[in-house]
């Protein structure tokens, strides 16, 4: 069976991106990159008996997962941006290749890269099977601002228009802006660094091409500025105030929710540090514990207020590894999001948030076949095992030998 041959996948339960289908025991028929049929095993299996059967009876099928926030060219092993950003193109691409393969094996069939160098836009992902990659290019940031090492900093002679146009001309799928400080040395997370007018200029240029804009906005002020500017997304759940602590400003929350702005979750990115052996008792452990706590609390606030949320890991940044998407689903499950909604957010919900609903995120005839099979959905109790991954109709197992 070669990578593109048709096959039949049999499972017990199916979440089609919107919700669980009633009853058990389904088959999905995949051919030429597309789902061509989906229905009860008893009714369909005979009709497709000539095709190879991939039998995962007892398991759960969902659309391939979408990670709305990664940094493909960063290793996620604790090395900071100051160390890894200066690496040559070939080194950064080798890192991205390993990262994307790890994420695919972990069930992620689409990633949105929210911060890399401009040259990353020119790379064709491969060789071997890769997730779909949406790339937002160099983050547009203040002079010496957070993530300036990717090359997207503003300056006396370099405006938002200049950097936005450079990204779009190089093929960026959307634009990322940085409206507050963050984990880059010399920046202050609770300082707002871009004005609403600056963000609005990027929104104007991206929207003119049907592309989205998301904004790293850790402060209430940056959330307000991004919302007023018409941005589509806000990354993280900081709601930081001038004292450096998280105090959700009701006005910022209400404005973002009313505008339908999507919050990128990144609940697991601080927690990643807490999983490391030897991290106990360090200053960073204390800081990351505090952040983990308020991100969870703020996720509750946003969801409770009817806000939209995209599931994103921030993989690559600092200690957040690729291949561990489930670590983002687990804290959301722990925050009370039921499995059915969680799987919707990770698939069709994220596809909507990213503006690519026809590309991926659903299981239905005629839709591209991006699929993941897992051995359970009680995310709060345990991390499920990923037992099958299909992207654009190709099975990961059948392609592994090409690596
Ligand atoms: Zn990030």
TrEMBL record:
Coiled coil: none annotated. GO terms for molecular function: hydrolase activity, acting on carbon-nitrogen (but not peptide) bonds. It comes from the Bacteria. Residues 60-395 form the Amidohydrolase-related domain. Signal peptide: none annotated. PANTHER family: ALPHA-D-RIBOSE 1-METHYLPHOSPHONATE 5-TRIPHOSPHATE DIPHOSPHATASE. This is Imidazolonepropionase. It comes from Micromonospora eburnea. The lineage of its organism: Bacteria, Bacillati, Actinomycetota, Actinomycetes, Micromonosporales.
């Amino acid at each position: 069976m070669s990578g593109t041959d048709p096959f039949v996948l049999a499972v017990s339960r199916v979440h089609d991106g919107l919700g669980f289908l009633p009853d058990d025991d389904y088959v999905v028929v995949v051919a030429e990159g597309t789902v061509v049929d989906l229905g009860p095993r008893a009714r369909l299996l005979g009709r497709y008996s000539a095709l190879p059967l991939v039998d995962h009876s007892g398991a759960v099928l969902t659309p391939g997962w979408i990670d709305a926030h990664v940094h493909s060219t960063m290793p996620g092993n604790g090395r900071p941006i100051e160390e890894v950003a200066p690496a040559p193109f070939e080194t950064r691409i080798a890192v991205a290749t390993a990262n994307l393969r790890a994420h695919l094996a972990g069930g992620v069939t689409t990633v949105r890269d929210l911060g890399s160098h401009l040259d990353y836009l020119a790379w064709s992902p491969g060789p071997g099977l890769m997730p779909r990659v949406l790339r937002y290019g160099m983050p547009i940031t203040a002079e010496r601002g957070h993530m300036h090492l990717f090359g997207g900093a503003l300056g006396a002679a370099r405006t938002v228009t200049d950097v936005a146009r450079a990204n779009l001309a190089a093929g960026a799928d959307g634009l990322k802006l940085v409206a507050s400080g963050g984990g880059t040395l010399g920046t202050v997370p609770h300082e707002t660094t871009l004005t609403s007018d600056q963000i609005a200029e990027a929104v104007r240029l991206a929207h003119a091409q049907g592309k989205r804009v998301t904004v790293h906005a850790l402060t209430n002020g940056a959330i307000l500025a991004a919302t007023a500017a018409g941005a589509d997304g806000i990354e993280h759940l900081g709601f930081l105030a001038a004292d450096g602590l998280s105090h959700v400003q009701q006005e910022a929350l209400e404005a973002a929710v009313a505008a339908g702005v999507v919050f990128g979750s990144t609940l697991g990115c601080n927690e990643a540090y807490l999983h490391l052996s030897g991290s106990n008792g360090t200053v960073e452990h204390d800081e990351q514990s505090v952040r983990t706590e308020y991100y969870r609390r703020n996720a509750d606030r946003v969801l409770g207020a009817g806000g939209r949320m995209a599931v994103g890991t921030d993989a690559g940044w600092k200690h957040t590894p690729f291949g561990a998407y489930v670590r983002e689903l687990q804290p959301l499950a722990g925050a009370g999001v039921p499995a059915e909604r969680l799987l919707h957010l990770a698939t069709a919900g994220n596809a909507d948030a990213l503006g690519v609903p026809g590309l991926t995120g659903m299981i239905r005839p005629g839709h591209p076949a991006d699929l993941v099979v897992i051995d359970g959905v009680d995310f709060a109790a345990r991390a499920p095992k990923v037992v099958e991954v299909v992207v654009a109709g190709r099975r990961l197992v059948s392609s592994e030998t090409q690596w």
